[in-house]
Amino acid sequence: MRFLLDAEQRDFARSLDALLTSCDTPAVVRSWAAGDHGPGRALWDRLAEAGVFALAVPERHEGFGPLPLELTLAFEVLGRHAVPGPLVETVAAAALLDRLGDDRIAAGRLPGIASGKSVASLCLTGLGPYALDADAADGVFVVDGDTLRLATGTGTVQPSADPARRLSRPSDGTVLAQGPAVAAAARYAADVAALATAAQSLGVGRTLLTRTVEYVTRRTQFGVAIGSFQAVKHRLADTLLALEFAGPLVHGAALALAAGDEEAGGDIAAAKVAAGEAAYAAARTALQLHGAVGYTDELDLSLWIRKARPLRDTWGTPAACRARVMGADR
């Protein structure tokens, strides 16, 4: 199969990229990491106006979707600009609420997510006890087995490798639904989260590569740009190949999810591990080729470097994804 994005999809990605280019996202990230959500919520509103969150919400609840492919395009751009917040968790929560089959719950929550008025976080206890940015969310949905509840509070924010990823344990809350439909909806939501995270990783990796290439063409040693050294060229080429290999896997997994393919879960796992490992390799390359300056918090590049590993490991570790691809979880 030969797959190409159509003109409308390319235009959407370009317009979103232009929007975020005009924003000072490093400043937004630093404010978010410090616990100041104001600039991040303002940016969230602009993303909602661009239709990002509506891509995960069906038309009957004031959305445009669900449109998995367009969602991956959006999240790649979000990763490229290191946008903070529970972006993945919000669209995954939308997928969960849509799949529950309870119009009362969906109608009460999904329009707010589509419009950007409601920021959501999601915790599937089978994958871990923490919710991302629960302190900034308007609602934290927790699935424990076949029970869905809305948390009424959050615990202390835990330290993270990425200071902009603020993790906490959600408290007990109000039960919204119980039964097999909850467990099935949670599995689907986890797939959506893994796919969006893969796309985000891809964007992070591409920015790391772009900025590193720019740096090695300016940085000189022995009177020449270090980018002219064979070892540097080979390292950058390996990074590029890994990212280029991951891209079609992410898009292919989105198409499989949109088509309701029974093998979509395996495709998503393959995309997740490929994109996550590629972004992590891009971070290591960026760190090494920037030398000592790469270790400084003051360098904006550090905001992308510190995202790569947490994104690689969240919503499916490399080991878990490889096991799923190989069928070990069946």
Mean pLDDT: 94
What's the number of helices?
Answer: 11
What's the main sheet like?
Answer: 4 strands, mixed
- Strand composition percent: 5-15%
Based on Cα principal axes, name the global outline. globular
Strand order of the largest sheet: 1-3-4-6
- Report the count of strand segments: 8
Distance between the termini: 27 Å
Taking pLDDT < 50 over at least 5 consecutive residues as the criterion, the unreliable ranges are none
Helix content: 55-70%
Q: Which structural class should the secondary elements be placed in?
A: alpha+beta
The gyration radius over C-alpha positions equals 19 Å
Q: How do the SSEs run, as a string of H and E?
A: HHHHHHEEEEEEHEEHHHH
Can you characterise this structure?
Helices cover 58% and strands 9% of the residues. The chain has helices at 7-21, 25-33, 38-49, 68-80, 87-99, 103-115, 180-218, 230-258, 264-289, 301-313, 318-325, and strands at residues 120-124, 131-132, 139-144, 147-151, 167-168, 173-178, 220-221, 224-225. A four-stranded mixed β-sheet has the order 1-3-4-6. A hairpin with a 2-residue loop joins strand 3 (139-144) and strand 4 (147-151). It is globular, with a radius of gyration of 19 Å. The model has no long low-confidence stretch (mean pLDDT 94).
Give the secondary structure arrangement, pairings included.
Blueprint: H1 7-21, H2 25-33, H3 38-49, H4 68-80, H5 87-99, H6 103-115, E1 120-124, E2 131-132, E3 139-144, E4 147-151, E5 167-168, E6 173-178, H7 180-218, E7 220-221, E8 224-225, H8 230-258, H9 264-289, H10 301-313, H11 318-325
Parallel strand pairs: 1-3
Antiparallel strand pairs: 2-5, 3-4, 4-6, 7-8
